[in-house]
Design goal:
Layout (H helix, E strand, L loop, with lengths): L3 E4 L2 E8 L3 E6 L20 E6 L16 H14 L5 E6 L1 H12 L4 E7 L7 H8 L8 H10 L3 H15 L10 H4 L5 E7 L8 H9 L3 E6 L12 H13 L4
Helix pairs in contact: 1-2, 3-5
Length: 249
């Protein structure tokens, strides 16, 4: 069983694998910490990978059912404090990338470098339209089965996750990163976006790149939302790890 931290009214489950300097991995919506295995065949060499299940995901609880990416950032800071990690490199995919943006703007000195994948500065109209009507029936059967394997607290937990996604459609506060706010980020940042993302137009990646100092932009040709899995995985691993090692400096 993975270790557990009780914080902010939840039980936060997390895994730590590998040895070396800390590397935080934040999964996307409806995922769990173990999703790193769909990108890396093994823990990245030279790193101690820290992979939490965000509140209400995987084995983590969320009794209030309330979910914001700002709160995920606060939960993650509590985990890093618990592990006595003052400064970290990080990878965040989709919603995990949004949480990383909160972390990097709230406590800039704690994020040394980060890779944010398919994470927008705000939810555009096309994303809100999908969020407002999002249901389990919109997913393929294989993904519905995966939901039940990932989330350990049953149907009520899964329903709460879909309710949270619908709530994003009407929330204009949680995901609202203005250029002045993004300009406070001190972390070396790699922004990864697919040019065929059905949720977020690739123009948002250019907005992030223009606003975040010390940022690099990688637009993945013919890439969809989260272009880091499957056939895209090996190239992402090679590129992201070279960036995090500082090879680009």
């Amino acid at each position: 069983m993975s270790p557990v931290l009780d914080t902010h009214g939840i039980s936060l489950h997390y895994d730590i694998v590998g040895d070396g300097e800390p590397l935080l991995f934040l999964h996307g919506g409806l995922g769990c910490g173990d999703n790193w295995r769909y990108i890396f065949t093994a823990p990245p060499e030279g790193y101690r990978l820290i992979a939490p299940d965000q509140r209400g995901h995987g084995a983590s609880t969320n009794p209030s059912r309330a979910f914001t990416f700002r709160q995920v950032a606060a939960d993650t800071f509590a985990l890093l404090d618990h592990l006595k990690v003052d400064r970290v490199k990080a990878i965040g995919v989709s919603g995990g990338g949004i949480a990383l943006l909160h972390m990097a703007t709230r406590q800039p000195s704690r994020i040394e470098s980060m890779v944010i994948v398919s994470a927008p500065p705000y939810f555009p109209a096309q994303a809100r339209a999908i969020q407002a009507q999002f249901t389990e029936a919109m997913l393929p059967e294989s993904e519905r089965a995966a939901l039940r394997r990932r989330h350990k607290h049953g149907e009520d937990q899964i329903q709460a996750l879909f309710e949270a996604v619908k709530g994003f459609a009407a929330d204009y506060d949680d995901v609202s990163f203005t250029p002045p706010l993004l300009a406070t980020i001190t972390a070396r940042t790699l922004i990864v976006f697919g040019d065929r993302d059905f949720l977020y137009p690739v123009s948002l990646a250019f907005d992030l790149h223009a606003a975040i100092p010390r940022s690099h932009l990688w637009v993945v040709p013919n890439g969809g939302h989260g272009p880091v899995f499957g056939a895209d995985g090996p190239r992402f691993v090679e590129t992201a790890m070279a960036f995090l090692r500082g090879d680009w400096d």
